User: What shape does this take?
Amino acid sequence: MNNNDEVKKVNLTINGTAIAVAPGTVLLAAAHQAGVHIPSLCYLNSDEFQYRNSVGSCRVCMVEVVGRRGLVPACSTTVYEGMVVRTDSLKAIRARRTMVELLLSNHPSDCLICERNGNCQLQQMAADMGIRSIKYKGAVSSHPKDIESFSIVRNPDKCILCRRCETMCNSIQSVGVYSAIGRGFETTMGTAFNKPIIETTCTFCGQCVSVCPTGALSEVDATEEVWKLLQAPGKVVIAQTAPAIRVALGEEFGMEPGSVITGKLAAALRRLGFAKVMDTNFTADVTIMEEASEFVHRFQHGGKLPLLTSCCPAWIKFFEHQFPDLLDVPSSCKSPMEMMGALIKSYYAEKAGVDPQDIVVVSIMPCLAKKFEAARPELVSSKGHSDVDIVLSTRELARMIREAGIEFLSLPDEEYDNPLSDSTGAADIFGTTGGVLEAALRTAYKMVTDEDLQAVEFQMLRGVDGVREAEIPFGNTKVRVAIANGLANARELLQKVQSGEVEYHIIEVMACPGGCIGGGGQPYTKGNMEILRRRAAGLYAIDSAKTIRRSYENQAMLTMYAEYIGVPYGEKAHELLHTSYVRREDK
Amino acid sequence: MSQSASCLTEKYGEIDKYIDNLPSLRGALVTVLHQAQTIYGYLPEELQLHIARRLNVPAAQVYGVVSFYSFFTMEPKGQCAISLCMGTACFVLGAGGVLQEFEKELGIKAGETTPDNLFSLDALRCVGACSLAPVVLVGDKVYGKATTSQVRGIIEEHMQRMAKGGGSNE
Assistant: This one.
């Protein structure tokens, strides 16, 4: 970074405070250095994930530059030497307030019953500015809501046309579901031919929901259904929790990002009325056994390589749309969530003497695509029931905990229920980009070399870079691996593999930047990527604190294999733990 | 797939040839849509999807552009396309009344096509011929300083032309 240090800084003053920033910085970012916050709605930048939305469309960041006639938008105005900026002049304050009032004039005022109540950036802005009346009266847009998908609800009436969703879907995910449709006052952020999102190439990663500043995009709420089932007579409602939940849920209750709340999570679910609390981590270890076996099988028998991981349902749907000719390349492993559902309704049901038809599996996931995945027809068992019945996002679970009046912070730490809960450190890191691959290598190494891997931490596979690659020595051979997070990165990597430009043995793909810790169902980060880093650190800390960190040493899992499944990648495993993919339209 | 690839190749061969001869696909969307509408008369969903695939852009983006420009249409137009300028000058000089007269005579609203598929009627933004306001365009033919009393005559003129097999006056 020496070169950057040598670049001459630009001097300017903001509200009388002199600062020096790198050339090319926009005022909005520079202002932080002067301790000044400039409100913004459309602007959202994360250099780490190459996400840049500075379209300057909302105009709520107007500031005064002394010597210039009009006001300028701070998000798209670059600093220059000697610039004198006032964000606190009456003119600037009034202009920003007017912009917010104009936005409110075409925005439903049903904040009290809005999904984003208390979590909406427009609402927050109106509160910060003390707006008490809607000054401007005029036409109000009205467009149909899209409630047809399993994952995402779109309410165009609450859209402020900030284009964050479009930028996310186009540039980070390369999916391109959204575009501005129509013109002028009638403009909406819509889909091709205004189709419901379920009929598009949407992967349901939910990143558009993550960046939406208002209630225009939200998740399909399943809490009502879960409340009902928890009270329904004769139903055995069993929860499972994904790795990434335990380092994020605490944020909803004021805890620091990355706080490990595994024990409180189990306690909260029990108090909500779940009959049993199982841990998706268990099937993360199972996934490793299956995926590593599949890899070794392909590796030693000249099968299709690279093996692509299949835990991420958004990645799988993306793959089905974009690479329909390569459907035999991804691992056939179900995701850990689906494996858990299948095992609860078979292995556990038999063991506990419960009719699988009476079991309701509720998955707590950091993800909105999991809601779509749970509804996939390929994941219905031969007995006619889905592996997983309902998926709740981290945010939905937090709402249920609050509604039930459970004081989360004072909950004791409780254990999960046997027999599907014990896990190794390898399972915990599934929740962050690179984690599945690292976990798989710990086990594949043993399967290939018949030796226990001693240095289990692969630092070169960690971090948040969009694409990472490494060559891992496995005895005499070398295994070439790659990791992509963000679907545009994944697409680029796959295209290189297709053209023969690069060769790998295994590729891990997670649709969301940062992996599941940054999933579309997680507590809102409002663009603060430091939060993701801390969640990842939380998971790595859990892993390193465990004595057993290699999946094949999970005793509960080995018992399950011995009692029920037989050998990994065997006949029973194929029936319960593996799946197939479908060809989908590319546009 | 709604139709097989080979079938579409045949159907959209002309626009494919146009796309093949473009120096670059980048930024070509509006030009291609313009050309496609000239060839096929309108831009149905299937054609937009075909163009999205050929130019490797999201379908939403194609539809976004089509829905933005009033020039583009997703509905088939009549053999004879009547357009009225509703720019400021034309409007002030009575284009609204002329449009109403066309709507009455043809029995359709602006944006619609007659059931016999002979006429379609559209209101345009300024066509840049303000000195002739109000302006009526029928295909490439321009009628300047149009009045309500001319409307029936214009329609009849084109009915006769089409009856003689004059086509769409291009």
Notes: Chain A is about 35% helix and 15% strand. Chain A has a mean pLDDT of 95. The first strand of chain A starts at residue 10 and ends at 14.
